[in-house]
Amino acid sequence: MTATKKTANGAEAFETLTTMSPEVFKEGYEKVAEGFSAVADFQKGSMEAVMASASVFAKGVEKLTSEQSAFVKAAFEEGMATAKAASTTNNVQETIDLNSEFFRGAVEKNLGQFNKVSDICIETTKDAVEPLTARYSELVEKIQSYRP
Questions:
Q1: Residue by residue, what is the 3-state secondary structure of 76-96?
Q2: Residue 18: HSE in the Cβ half-sphere, 13 Å Cα cutoff
Q3: Cβ atoms of residues 56 and 128 within 8 Å
Q4: Is residue 131 over pLDDT 50?
Q5: pTM for the complete prediction?
Q6: Phi, psi of 19 (to 5 degrees)
Q7: On the CB side of 1, how many CA atoms lie within 13 Å of its CA?
Q8: How far apart are the C-alpha atoms of 1 and 13, rounded to whole Å?
Q9: At what angle do helices 92-145 and 22-87 cross, to 10 degrees?
């Protein structure tokens, strides 16, 4: 029974297609073409949003790398200066005090650097997601506009 129904619908569709006037066909074709054009335009905008997001992300990674490189260089230089100073001390207590001060400062600086890195990562993520979020919102609006 289902096969007969499909054949009847197929026959009806063929009959409708063959009796369609050129004006009706042209109108339907134009609607389909407009739909494809709208989809292509949306995809183009989506690719632009992805490229903008990637650009923001790359700049954020560059900023993060630069910040981290400067921090590591400064920490290394400070460590070397402390090692030199420790090698010229006159007694063990002076060396212990110097190292204690160095390690206390290093811990504080590392915590500060961690906060800087976290802020850069959060800012980069927020800025990189923004163009994609806008495209998603536009997609949701388009989908809702087609709802009956």
A1: HHHHHHHHHHHHCCCCHHHHH
A2: 6
A3: yes
A4: yes
A5: 0.68
A6: -95, 0
A7: 0
A8: 19
A9: 170
The residue type at 44: K
Q: Which residue has the tokens 């100073």?
A: 85
| Sequence spans of domains, the chain | 2-145
Rounded Cα gap, residues 30 and 11, in angstroms: 25
- Tell me which amino acid residue 4 is: T
Per-residue tokens: 124: 């980069």
State yes or no: pLDDT of 53 exceeds 90: yes
The answer for 91, left when phi > 0, alpha when psi is -120 to 50, beta otherwise, is beta
Instruction: Provide the pLDDT for residue 7.
Output: 52
The label of the residue with tokens 């490229």 reads 51
In the 8-state DSSP scheme, what is residue 42? Answer: H
Residue 101: name the closest of 88, 82, 75 by CA: 82
